[in-house]
Design goal:
The complex is a heterodimer of chains A (302) and B (311). Chain A has 302 residues and is mainly α. Chain A is 75% helix and 0% strand. Chain A contains 16 helices and no strands. With 311 residues, chain B is mostly helical. Chain B has one domain: MetI-like fold (Orthogonal Bundle), CATH 1.10.3720. The longest helix of chain B has 34 residues. Classes of the chains: A mainly alpha (302), B mainly alpha (311).
Amino acid sequence: MRAAANPPISLNDGAAGSRRRGLMQRLGMRGILEIGGIYAALILVLFETLYPLLWVLFGSLKTKQEMLSNVWGPPSSLVLQNYADAWRIAGMGSRIVNSIFVTGSALIILVAVATPCAYAVARLRFPGRGLVVAVAVAAMLVPPQVMAIPLFLVARDLGLINSRLGIAFIYAATSLPLSVFILRSFFITLPADLEDAARIDGASRLEILIHIMLPLVRPGVALILIFGFIEIWNDFFLAFLLLRDPSVQTIPLGLVSFFQQYDSLWTLYFAALTITTLPVIVVFVAMQRQFIAGLTAGAVKG
Amino acid sequence: MSTRPQEEAPVSSRSGTWRFNAGDGAVAFVMILPAAILFGLFYLWPFVNGFWLSLHNWDGFSDPTWAGISNYKRLVHDRIFLGALRNNLIFVVAVVVLKNVLGLGLALLLNRALLGRTFFRAAAFVPVTMSFVAVGLLWSWIYNPVFGLLNSGLDLIGLAGLKRSWLGDADIALYSIIVVDVWKWLGFHAVIYLAGLQTIPSELYESAKMDGAGPLQRFRHVTVPIMMPIIFINTILGLSGAFVRNFDIVYVLTKGGPNHATEVVLTYMMSKAFQDGAMSYAAAIGYVLFMIVGLASVGLLALMRRQRLDV
């Protein structure tokens, strides 16, 4: 009954394994052609996805002359100086520090604020609980981009323009409705017995939340952290709106201004893009199962 | 209404916490307060203030003056705005259709591939993890007329006649940008479709096969009906993103040019606010965009409900 209502969604190869035996005999000529076609198409997709990234890596190691004469191939010798120059001219060091500070602060604020709120609407009974949930759902229909102008004015009035901590609070606010909604759905599924037992032992609601409930919703917290990290680390729009001073700018802003400030330092642009993109791709490849499951779980579960 | 027969019974059998506790109101208040302050300050207040602003004339510094709906009236006759709106709608329809068709196609391929599926799936997902800025810069180089991959690739395969100024030609620049957005998100939609495809029991295909259904008929009568909720989810995800998540990519690739050919609503809003100083006019643009996004979401949700797709 439970399985029928909510079929398990498998993201791995398990289902295919049982049918693998006697494959070649069963396939026949037509089947082999079909499989061949499928792999040909997949390799084409692989090429259009990954070759451009490889091309940037190649380009970042070429001289500018070679980049123009040898567009497609690998570099004939490795010009590592491009990386040193890009790092220095684009001010990568301070941009990376800014991105880490802004994203880290925003995620800490987000979890600290969203968790008690989600716990309260999921597990406590009080007047206005339905209203809080309704507001969170309604807010998900209002993308923060449409109120960029008044948001800029609010930030200006509060003196938060060019403030890294200020934009961290604003990022946390824009991720808040979805995060409360996700965490609430995790809190709701927890059994009440644990909580009741702790209450009989005299634990307060806050102690219950921190010591008993929070460890149980760790997958939910991980989910909002992955969502939030991708959103905030990669954001250009709000940073462009609120961080005007180069000394506080994050990586995406730094890349764009480097690109627009200097003329045709192509190999250095490629090096700067590699420096900022490669670590994220490496992290993704290392934990791609969690990443993909996390980013799509909300969608598939609905 | 007021006296429910089982007032004391828990609403959900597995949860006893629904029983009323006198202390809960105060605790809940304290727990929600930080979220309420953050939300009120940076979400609700700008949302309300933006509407107030759109009904005034204001440059951001002097005293605002009451304008009624004149900002909105001006928008109806603003040719650049109408062009941006048109581009925005073309962008939305094109990326939603392409992401769904190609995403489902890629998922069907991945669903058949027995060996290396995890690898291909991960590879297709890589662009999803990249920022719009990184993707935009990458493609501005791919489209570059001097050393760009695209034109030099056309040279290589003997199709030099197809070479274009991909971002400089007003007739095709918007479509060049659409390709970039689809490239970035294709893997995301394919992975969601793949997860859906893997829930379809193979017996359904076996029995359809025995009834004499060919591959196309099996797709039409087995895959599509079962995948309907997933198709809706992918459409909603694509739609909600496409209206408002296009500023970065357009700004990086063309800044709305040439001659507003790729202007979308957000790029126009930002240039009105920060180049022309027309804060209240820009706020009105934001509000119109909000209403369009809201109508589209509500319409889609109503459609889902009518189709009894409880997702």
